[in-house]
């Protein structure tokens, strides 16, 4: 087992990885799955790794993932799964993912499947039930499964970005796309795009609340709400 520290000084956390001998990693072209794959690839050379992506349209090609692998210097074949669910609407994507994962478990010669699921961001910035927020991610909590592994589910996006920084591969985030509504060009307004911006703010620009600043917010915003 190896441990990886991540996050700012006020919220440092530990990610633990202890993969089996034969594993799969789900890659989506986003920062989370790319970071998880890179940590596994670099630190566990004796582990046999296969990479998977779930088909979401008639075209199974994933040029962005291929570009990410090329920039990482990794010569692995990307295996497409979930072909029989490819014509499902995106509102059914979470169900598509879960069924495709079951297919991998039942049909492929791997012991574990690793996914980059993370914590939803703080509700102060991303209200949980904001129906107007586009691209709201469905993230499971808390998983406990011998096959399906989610070692990032206790960390937020800023921890993921810091893992890349601390381990010397954060330049790959110039290529990854974490958008929840567009596969090739970030939309800039969905939860995935805003969450990435929020992550960098937490690492680089977060000042924290002083008593005076918090009092001003309390009076000006919440003063007439009551209990």
Describe this structure in words.
- With 227 residues, this protein is α/β, with parallel strands linked by helices.
- The protein has a single domain (2-222), classed as Rossmann fold (3-Layer(aba) Sandwich).
- 33% of the residues lie in helices and 14% in strands.
- It is built from six helices and seven strands.
- The strands form two sheets. Strands 5-4-3-6-7 form a five-stranded parallel sheet. Strands 1-2 form a two-stranded antiparallel sheet.
- β3, α1 (31-43) and β4 (48-54) form a beta-alpha-beta unit.
- α4 (157-166) packs across α5.
- The longest helix is centred in the middle third of the chain and has 15 residues, at 93-107.
- It starts with a strand and ends in a 5-residue tail after the last helix.
What's the structural blueprint in terms of helices and strands?
Layout: E1 2-6, E2 13-17, E3 22-26, H1 31-43, E4 48-54, H2 63-72, E5 78-81, H3 93-107, E6 112-114, E7 148-149, H4 157-166, H5 191-204, H6 211-222
Parallel strand pairs: 3-4, 3-6, 4-5, 6-7
Antiparallel strand pairs: 1-2
